[in-house]
Amino acid sequence: xxxxxxxxxxxxxxxxxxxxxxxxxxxxxxxxxxxxxxxxxxxxxxxxxxxxxxxxxxxxxxxxxxxxxxxxxxxxxxxxxxxxxxxxxxxxxxxxxxxxxxxxxxxxxxxxxxxxxxxxxxxxxxxxxxxxxxxxxxxxxxxxxxxxxxxxxxxxxxxxxxxxxxxxxxxxxxxxxxxxxxxxxxxxxxxxxxxxxxxxxxxxxxxxxxxxxxxxxxxxxxxxxxxxxxxxxxxxxxxxxxxxxxxxxxxxxxxxxxxxxxxxxxxxxxxxxxxxxxxxxxxxxxxxxxxxxxxxxxxxxxxxxxxxxxxxxxxxxxxxxxxxxxxxxxxxxxxxxxxxxxxxxxxxxxxxxxxxxxxxxxxxxxxxxxxxxxxxxxxxxxxxxxxxxxxxxxxxxxxxxxxxxxxxxxxxxxxxxxxxxxxxxxxxxxxxxxxxxxxxxxxxxxxxxxxxxxxxxxxxxxxxxxxxxxxxxxxxxxxxxxxxxxxxxxxxxxxxxxxxxxxxxxxxxxxxxxxxxxxxxxxxxxxxxxxxxxxxxxxxxxxxxxxxxxxxxxxxxxxxxxxxxxxxxxxxxxxxxxxxxxxxxxxxxxxxxxxxxxxxxxxxx
Amino acid sequence: xxxxxxxxxxxxxxxxxxxxxxxxxxxxxxxxxxxxxxxxxxxxxxxxxxxxxxxxxxxxxxxxxxxxxxxxxxxxxxxxxxxxxxxxxxxxxxxxxxxxxxxxxxxxxxxxxxxxxxxxxxxxxxxxxxxxxxxxxxxxxxxxxxxxxxxxxxxxxxxxxxxxxxxxxxxxxxxxxxxxxxxxxxxxxxxxxxxxxxxxxxxxxxxx
Lengths: 605, 208
Prior knowledge:
Chain A is an all-alpha fold. Chain A has 17 helices and no strands. The longest helix of chain A has 35 residues, at 67-101. By secondary structure, chain B is an all-alpha fold. Chain B is built from 5 helices and 2 strands; from the N terminus they run αββαααα. Chain B has helices spanning 18-43, 72-97, 101-131, 140-171, 181-206, and strands spanning 58-59, 65-66. In chain B, helix 1 packs parallel to helix 5 and helix 3 (101-131) packs antiparallel against helix 4 (140-171). The termini of chain B are far apart. The chains are: A mainly alpha, B mainly alpha. Chain A binds chain B through residues 104-110, 173, 176-178, 180-181, 184-187, 189, 191, 211-216, 218-220, 222-223, 226, 230-234, 239-242, 245, 249, 252, 524, 556, 558, 598, 605, and chain B through 1-6, 12-14, 16, 18, 21-22, 25-26, 28-30, 32-33, 36-37, 40, 43-44, 47-49, 136-137, 139-140, 142-144, 147, 165.
């Protein structure tokens, strides 16, 4: 890239700092870091909840926590890991990487992006505020009616869950509109759709899923809230309502949600495997279309979560077949990943180890998932630890392994320093060991009949041994996370300084300095293929020169703004009104939101 | 090459303005929102355990007679006005794009009046229904009817506020032809709100 037109200035001359600069930032990279930091803290909180669950279950007939607390722990563990852990950790990568990977200076709507983050944070804080009043949600993460109705859940627990998810839904929808438009509309010259990095492709598919799945849960939550607060009977049989409708609406959202959690992981792994195999991604087009196909089918399989409700042979057959069908595009992906590393010059750096670990673990989770597609088998497994084993293999062994791989891979780009390789390898092997020790025995326990969500179990069922092993595994996982945290904290200050392209990557983020300057590209790049850096290197006959930091004179950037956070506060206040029960609070929230939106619409961008 | 995302006519990969694409994307998402509400209404049609009912008379166990709830004539007028308002906003947009101030202000004003009439009609309808004995909590019909049409009414209200904001801009001569997109975005949303009503009206009021 040519930098001749721009005068060279000291590295950090224009970079802003201080708390206010973070509050008013509209820079997609800073917002990405905010997402990552907040999500990691929520993720640790969710991990702590899991650890307490494991301590309670370590031995039969223990009473470490009360049954009420136990219900709150498993509900908040699931809700936190999904909405405050994996989704926003993916959002960190969307934010940081998508604009750079498509050769743009920011997202299409930078202030809307800031608002998405602040609304997400508000939702996370609102959900967790329930702990402070000893009323955390306690009904399970899918909130089945009519347990969630006022008659059976009189406390504010379920209210916290409803409004928390509504607030988080607003954040997700705003971000989805933003990233969809960004990817479709802000691609640089030559960046055709079929040249986009696979991570951008899978992100695009994820945004579509978010756009189409979240409105459904929004309506379902509104109806539940009206049942609880305004005397309707949407899900109350006594008034003619049908609790099964809740299950349908929840899973019409809930199953696409599963793909919202895993598709970004597919994208991350598809970026890492080629770089550490020194080969382009195998079967690019097949990868794109299988991702789209998974998302499409994802809207037609929701009722496999509901075989036990007795839907009849026609519905059972349909959803069973659709579920089996979804294994095909997923299998295509796995074979393409194997095809990518096949015959490659493999480098077993930490990101690669996690990416390979992802493939192995995800295959196990995928296989047990296919088992659930058979209704008679599912009837044996539903609500047992077998299901818990399955979804931890896809969401932890899948999503979390891939997100960790991404963290090691892109940390140098984000911070300008390398994470320690030795500690990274310790982290990987401890996590691999701890993960399998924790979750593999759940297959045995589930098939032997241990139900999920039980507070404790009698000694004579012989569940004790494997439960103890699982608890040991959970502590190994905790140690692996401590190693990771130590690695992060140490490397961010003392890590080896990272060059622009420490791994020999192929995508545009490696063409700019680490960390990138505020405007990403001094000069907007033009691409002519799928792996631009490798093509430029081939054309040049060697490695590209290290990109220089330049002055951003003449580059127009959007102005910082505090109206996004004001709007987010308005939305938070509005929804808090439904918990405290004073309509004045709701009205105040609407007013603040309006002031925020109007000031935002009329301020110079 | 300008990458300024906020310029009025930025260069984009598709040639379509990003704000316009965002509205289309949002409308796509809103389709699922209303689809869920309408589905719920349809699933619960005829499942109310007690009256009053939308299209049939109902005698309560205490012998009180409740007439059918829905007032089709009034709502038909409201529906017609809402449909015409979609035409009016197109004429207003033509005025904005071709610098015809009279057309812009006149037709935009007419659009807003139609919207205000529709919302007022709904407020009257809701209070009238409560007087006739149907509340949100009365039965499944009340719950699903008020929720569905209430959310639609909220959308109309937001549309009216949005269009009125653009009207004020136009009045202060801040809507020159090159900024006509500001009206077009509101108009797109307005058309969508209208289209949703075209589905709701027959499903709720006409299908017995």
